[in-house]
TrEMBL record:
Transmembrane segments: none
Domain DUF4124 positions: 3-54
UniProt source species: Thiobacillus sedimenti
Residue segments, region Disordered: 43-90
Protein name per Swiss-Prot or TrEMBL: DUF4124 domain-containing protein
Signal sequence, start to end: none
Length: 140
């Protein structure tokens, strides 16, 4: 990553100067009148820097493309895993419901007031058929 940060400055002159305290400094911009140039890039270096920058840009684009593809693949796998979990959960509920309808002598439901309402034989047959269809749909 540091190569990317330095690439735009590769074509600039490098200056050296000493401040009032005697500390030596280096930089691409010098304070007025007290610095000397210690490095000037060669004439072809700018073209090389431009090529390097283009190469880094292409690598960065390829990396971002691979990163996005991996994120898309993870999202797809997560979605499929959630659908599988929901299918298994619905299957378990449908089988439990079917078992209760087939194995209990009397089946009832409770209303909001807490009163039991027992199923008659016709309602039980319809509920059993619906449960068998749900098992067939969810437990593939």
């Amino acid at each position: 990553m540091s190569a990317i940060a330095l690439a735009p400055h590769a074509h600039a002159d490098l200056y050296k100067w000493t401040d009032a305290r005697g500390n030596v400094h280096y930089g691409d911009q010098a304070p007025a009148g007290q610095a000397r140039i210690i490095h000037t890039p060669a004439a072809g270096q700018s073209a090389i820097t431009s090529q390097a920058r283009q190469s880094l840009d292409a690598q960065e684009q390829a990396f971002q493309k691979r990163r996005q593809a991996a994120a898309d693949a993870r999202a797809k796998a997560d979605k499929e895993a959630e659908q599988t979990r929901m299918r298994r959960e619905n299957c378990a509920k449908a089988r439990s419901n079917l078992s209760a309808l087939q194995n209990s002598p009397r089946v009832y439901s409770t209303d909001a007031a807490g009163q039991r309402s027992y199923m008659d034989d016709a309602a039980r047959e319809r509920a059993t058929a619906d449960s068998q269809k749900a098992v067939a749909d969810f437990c593939k």
